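Allow me, if you will, to draw on your knowledge of protein folds for a short while. I have a record of one protein: its chain in single-letter code and its fold written as discrete structure tokens. I remain grateful for any guidance, and I place the record below:
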Amino acid sequence: MEAIPVSETSRPPRARKDAQLNRQRIVDAATRVLRAGPQPVKIETIAQEAGVGVGTLYRNFPSREALVEEVYRSELARLCARAGELLAGHPPAEAMRAWMGRYQEFVATKHGMAEALRAVIASGAISSGTTREHLNGAIATLLEAGRRDGSLRADVEPADVSASMAGIMLAAADAEQAGRMLGLLVDGLLARP
């Protein structure tokens, strides 16, 4: 009797859900490990943190660069989505302050993957222009909500805020100083009576 091949489309939905879950666990684990510091991170460490084998990690991400690209894209998407989520439960100025704290975490994750991220950027898979565009969209959402309720200045462009945030992250001596400087930036965005 001949074995009937199982195609991708006839595979049970559970297998696809398990694969998706493993992929997300790998991305989440890589994010946590990369956020911990700039030292080179072993693929084995990420696999162990995710609770999967190295083979499973490589089936999902054939190279370190592919994993770093996915972590970067995932973190950027989460950061940008967070703007609307924060606005759903907080006044715009408070949401902006919390969102900038999340931005600081995003930048910390980038430091942990700096070497691999440079290779991904050099390949053209990620561009600073696209990143800026996404960040500016999230900032515009926050600014517009603040303009509508009168809590944030109406004369500020999203690109000015994102450039200021980037400058702060480059100039700050440490995370504590960066947090204080981002707080000052938010204070500068508040509408004057």
